[in-house]
Amino acid sequence: MLPVVQIVRRPGILDLGWGHPDPALLPVAALQRATATALERYGADALTYGAERGPGPLIEWICARLAQTDARAPDPVDVIITAGASQALDLLCTLWTTPGDTVLVESPTYHLAVRILRDHPLELAAVPSDADGVDVDALEALLARLARRGKQARMLYFVPTHHNPTGSCMSLERRRALATVAAEHGVLLVEDDVYRELSYDDPAPPSVWSIAPPGTVARIGSFSKSLAPGLRLGYVTSHASLAQRLIGSGLLDSGGGLNPFVALTVAEVCTAGDFDATVARLRAAYRERRNALAKGLHDYLPAGCRFVVPGGGFFQWVELPEGIDAGELLPRAEQSGVSYLPGSRFYLDEPRRNTLRLAFSLYSPDQLVEAAQRLGEAIGRI
Ligand SMILES: Cc1ncc(COP(=O)(O)O)c(C=O)c1O
């Protein structure tokens, strides 16, 4: 039989390479209720071509939610619903760039966003980052180098909040500096904000979108992390003019709004209070998992390994002692029954080979401690 799900399980291996949610945490019952309610409430309207922007009830709920979780709420005309963050990025590339344009990507970054960018014939250039996020001085230097070659960057893709893969959060100061530089140079900031709801200690910082001049940022949100990735539902908050550009795309003109039935169903989940309940449950579960993995790493990793416990998201970044290549370590780790993604996968250039990414979303706290022990043993045997 052909597979139903994307993940491929390997018996005997605790595979912390997958940044997927634990199926046991997905809100099946809430979706069952919401599907029935959406069909009752909207009848055939739920099943026909939807409004291009996405259904009003969901957009209104997103605006109200962001009023609570961000520094400012969008106006409904600033928002469009997408088929997840990945599709939003793809659509932005289609409409905002032309082949050969230069697009900037922070490095390290979410490796699969790079795959989407590479589906478009763009020239990608890496912007270095540190523990505090995108290095704005390095960005300015890069923009100046590009200008000398007669080039102007079209957009910059980055993940400032609970970063994938490093788990870091960009400081407010950096967010402000980045917003200023991007606005000065006419670079559209594409802010991937999919982990905003999954903050485990403090509330997430204000999005760059919320503090930047209107029209300079397209912020991409998603229900993949806060509800379920199988919904394929996300959104863009930008500015009415950019939203209008997306709405005017051939894709939306031909097919109407993206995933309208799912969008109406999710609107029911949200207004019934099940979004709040699910996010509270996910935060508690992932916080416990993050803590268990951190304790396991603390107890079992040999001296010389370093890690900073993330404040949210799905990922723990680990630095091995200099000279240990996480790619070369991987087969031995798998022999010990644990897997991960080598950090080199997340760099556009000059990878730091002694780094690796562990996802703590898929496994129970006990399994995560076991995974840390197996990893520590594999490193110790080098
Ligand atoms: C930073 C980041 N952006 C986007 C995605 C994918 O989002 P979606 O499922 O909404 O396409 C992920 C999933 O791992 C992610 O980590």
Write a brief structural summary.
This protein is an alpha/beta fold. 42% of the residues lie in helices and 15% in strands.
Total domains? 2
Largest sheet: 8 strands, mixed
* CATH-defined superfamily of the largest domain: Type I PLP-dependent aspartate aminotransferase-like (Major domain)
The best one-word shape is: globular
Report the count of strand segments: 14
Summarize the structure in words.
It is a single chain. Helices cover about 40% and strands about 15% of the residues. By secondary structure, it is of the alpha/beta class. It is globular, with a radius of gyration of 21 Å. A hairpin with a 2-residue loop joins β4 (about 125-130) and β5 (about 135). α2 (about 55-70) packs across α10, α11 (about 275-300) runs parallel beside α13 (about 365-380) and α12 packs across α13. It folds into two domains: about 15-20 and about 275-380, Aspartate Aminotransferase, domain 1 (Alpha-Beta Complex), CATH 3.90.1150.10; about 30-270, Type I PLP-dependent aspartate aminotransferase-like (Major domain) (Aspartate Aminotransferase, domain 2, 3-Layer(aba) Sandwich). The two termini are about 40 Å apart. It binds pyridoxal-5'-phosphate. Pyridoxal-5'-phosphate (PLP) binds next to α3. The site of pyridoxal-5'-phosphate has 13 residues, from α3.
